[in-house]
Task: inverse folding
């Protein structure tokens, strides 16, 4: 039952591989915490994550994502009197809410097949459609 869902912006993403040749993505996700009552500025928590295999294909720095995974903690000796505890999300699923690359994005249809209106600007297209009572089937 060790499952966690977090959403935020990806920071400090590093894509590498391990000794077995498996792709590994290491990074930090910036998670909104709350507004500071005194300054009014947003506060964020930075949580480390690791994703192995195809997970890295869905992660790009600066993307807004939701990550699902397991919390993993371990102790790391950094030369102090006591080791520090590292907490990270071991990612098993990614929902990416950002376009991977705007130049790679190609919509299936750029214009409506029946009307010829530009589908990239839906508001403009809706404003150009005039429907009268005689157009309705009832």
Result:
């Amino acid at each position: 039952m060790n499952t966690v869902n977090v959403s935020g912006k990806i920071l400090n993403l590093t894509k590498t591989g391990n000794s077995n040749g498996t792709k590994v993505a290491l990074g930090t996700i910036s998670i909104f915490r709350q507004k500071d009552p005194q300054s009014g500025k947003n506060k964020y928590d930075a949580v480390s994550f690791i994703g192995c295999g195809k997970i890295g294909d869905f992660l790009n720095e600066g993307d807004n994502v939701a990550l699902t995974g397991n919390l993993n903690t371990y102790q790391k000796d950094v030369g102090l009197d006591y080791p520090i505890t590292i907490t990270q999300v071991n990612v098993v699923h990614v929902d990416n809410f950002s376009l991977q690359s705007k130049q790679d994005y190609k919509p299936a249809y750029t214009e409506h097949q029946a009307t010829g209106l530009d589908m990239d600007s839906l508001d403009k297209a809706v404003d150009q459609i005039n429907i009268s009572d005689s157009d309705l089937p009832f």
In short: The chain has two domains: 4-96, 101-131. The beta strands are 4-17, 23-35, 42-52, 64-76, 84-96. The mean pLDDT is 83.
